[in-house]
Amino acid sequence: MNDMAKPPRSRAAKWTRRGFIGAGVLAGGALIVGVAVRPGNPVGKLGPIVAGGEGEQLVNSWVKIGADNVVTAIVPHCEMGQGAHSVLAQMLADELDADWSLVRVMQAPADGNYVVTDTARGFVAPGTLDAPDWLEPTWNGLFTKISQLGDVMITGGSSSIRTTGQRTMRIAGAAARQMLIAAAAREWGVPAAEIVTANSMLSHAASGKSAPYAQFAAAAAEEDMPQTPALKQPKDYRLMGTDAPRTDIPEKVTGAAQFGIDATVPGQKLTYAAVRKVPVPGTRIASMKADVAKTMPGVLQILNMGDFLAVVADSYWQAQQALNTIEAEYTKSESAIRSSADQFAAFAAALDQAGDQGGKELVGKGDVAGVLSVSAKTFTAEYRAPYLAHAPLEPMNATVWVRDGQCEIWTSTQVPLMARSAAAKAIGLSADDVTMHHPMLGGGFGRRLEVDYVVMAARIGLATGYPVKMIWSREEDTQKGLFRCADLSRFTGGIDAKGRLVAWNNVFTQHNDPAEACDAPFYDVPHKSIRVAEAELHLPFAAFRSVDHSQQAFFVESFIDEAAHAAGRDPVEFRLAMLGNSPRHKAVLEKVAAMAGWGTRPAAGRGRGVALVQSFGTIVAEVVEVDMSQGKPRLTQVWCAADPGFAMNPDGFRNQMEGGIVFGLTAALHGEITLKDGAVEQGNFNDYPMLRIDECPPIAVEIINADPVHLGGAGEPGLPPIAPALANAIFAASGKRIRELPIAKHFA
Amino acid sequence: MVKFTINGEAKSVEADPAMPILWVVREQLGLTGTKFGCGAALCGACTVHLDGQPVRSCSTPIGEAEGRAITTIEGIAGPEGELTRVQQAWISEQVPQCGYCQSGQIMAATALLRDNPRPSDADIDAAMAGNICRCGTYVRIRHAIKVAAGIEPARVVPLSGGAKA
Ligand code: FES
Ligand code: FES
What we know:
The structure holds two protein chains of two kinds. Chain A is of the alpha+beta class. Chain A is built from 22 helices and 27 strands. Chain A is 31% helix and 21% strand. Chain A is globular and about 80 Å long. By secondary structure, chain B is of the alpha+beta class. Chain B folds into two domains: 2-75, Beta-grasp domain (Ubiquitin-like (UB roll)), CATH 3.10.20.30; 85-148, [2Fe-2S]-binding domain (DNA polymerase, domain 1). Chain B is built from five helices and five strands; from the N terminus they run ββαβββαααα. Chain B has helices spanning 21-28, 85-92, 102-115, 121-128, 138-148, and strands at 2-6, 9-13, 47-50, 53-56, 69-71. Chain B has a five-stranded mixed sheet with strand order 2-1-5-3-4, sandwiched between helices. Chain B is globular, with a radius of gyration of 17 Å. The chains are: A alpha+beta, B alpha+beta. Bound molecules: FE2/S2 (inorganic) cluster (2 copies). Residues 36-39, 41-46, 56, 58 of chain B line the site of one FE2/S2 (inorganic) cluster.
């Protein structure tokens, strides 16, 4: 379904569950089977690391059962609000026939035994095993650097359910169940096939015997690890597909949940570091004047680290107060880009040079130039997207203690093993000398796939030698991190005499991940040329929630809408007519149109817009209704229909759609990072505003479970359609076409 | 030396009276449920109650708490840890995502419902607009406030029932 050239390691082989385990065994490398069920029983090795509790017995790498019959799922992904901890435990618990009220979640330690090997398979050791098709284009680029480091313990790409859930947690749960049954059968002297499991209990009807799992946990650990445990069919799911309440929510309503910023160092007094990085990327601190800061209360150390300043004090507030008094001069930047206008001029120059046919072709089929020259109607459009900061509500921070050739780190991160390696390298230690604690994240959104802040804290810790908690101010967080790229994208469309989109010519400058984000291959468009003409970015890049989809969906679905209007056709009908070969996409679009009452006339001053995007394996269509009667957009309702294949926890999935939509609305309406003298101009939520509750429309979400085998993601796919749906709604209501984000600045 | 009560307990701390309540509470008293989001009274993550009124603790000096009562997220449940109806509604409606903003959201909602037991949508928007949720849980916050107010029914969470494939 994708015209894009496949990366070289793409394989045609079909992925199956049995294929996974079988292939792992056949290939024989530890990496392959290690993810789900390692060959042999790893209790001895992993037990001491994760089974600290009284009377707890580790049954296999991913599940332990306590004397109180509590089942603990050991989850290798981070919890950053997406619900991964809970839903992965839910998948494991279903296969284990565990009582959900007795299931707990433990964050897997940052230990090599808990690398997310499903990811490693595709990147570290490509070619050892077939991987599902969706994995290839989506993951190819995003995690290249991870494959280089080999530190694959990551949370990103809306992938936890699809990879670890499907191919590790479920297998671990099923294997554990089988091992418990085997142990009970041996003890009771009855055939294993006659033992029934439910609600964390084993029972045998004929003999009347029954026992809680806990009773056989130790014996089960002695059993061989089954290599191909049977997994449930959807009709037998008891927890999967239900709204099992999230395990992490109770502690998030009492203030007890621990985030990276809440870290303490046991038995030690903490100190606090406030930091100021150089304002322009790539520059250095030329000089600083810290006379006043030195005399301020609580100040312990003032550090000039070359690329940033740090003040260490007894309290964070004292550190920040002192830092505010320091005057610094910086070296000159080599970048020719000083302003946002310079940045967009660089984009435009690259696109001018590429022209109608230049640049690197990403998708090419048919004869675009030829067809455009004979099209009944052609139109052009140029779209712009600004830089964006991720702005997780928990600012970047890390707590470190470096002493005696050892380092301990507490931080919120999506990549604990990468963070560990990077910190170790920065302070001249080996990764084995660094212990990583990674509690919950106060938001990630891709920002915490980067390890810059952890490295900074480690360098401060090396300088102090005592425990120190570094916290970025909100201003630092907005200005000095890494960013969703800005971009410019140019289209030419050709419409034939029957009002069909027959030619699609497009060129833009930023191509990251997923590689396919620039295309909408489900639409049947016969002649297509999509190209990238690379242009330099002034600000460093980090994946942003939905990555390239966050800007490409705005470009592509605005273009499709313009095509519909150029053809004089209804935007839904126009799209449906191109979905003849994509029944699932068609069903999703029809569903959202029905939810929104698309055929009915909106109230005076209002208009509706639609967009359809597939990202991270999930198909999402959204309709926005906007009221323009006051001269600027007010959202009155959002409808969302989504097909993730199968929603493991429908309520959790809905929550992610709602969250993705709100995150996307912030970007669509308000989000803009601009440059002045090479530095970011925005600082806090006053000039980099977030959507607030009073701007948030009601959001209705419906789920279509169309394919329980091939699952899509949840964390990101809600975001991409919302910006184009809103821009298309504004056009429908007012005739004003928005081709440049953010929207609010057109109505200021 | 500043004297105040926190969650019902009398305390005196050695602190510059200009130091924001937030840092005293987090660093000196070890109550980390109150969060730092912006430091500029723009996000609400640091919301606590001062004599029952919601304030932005990042921008309220501890000196202002002299002789007054501070309540943080850790102090709203009952003596046996019974959750308030706001906290219960936050669970039944599965509001939090990352959870980082939620202490502040709950403190703001608690104050709202005490002053206005049956808020309209507009009342909710007005009272809660100072609290940013970057994860985007606003739809659920609005609903959970109505559940806590008894205006809308709490959701019954089905625990099983099989797949809907
Ligand atoms: S941290 Fe106080 S309002 Fe944001
Ligand atoms: S739940 Fe993450 S910021 Fe609100």
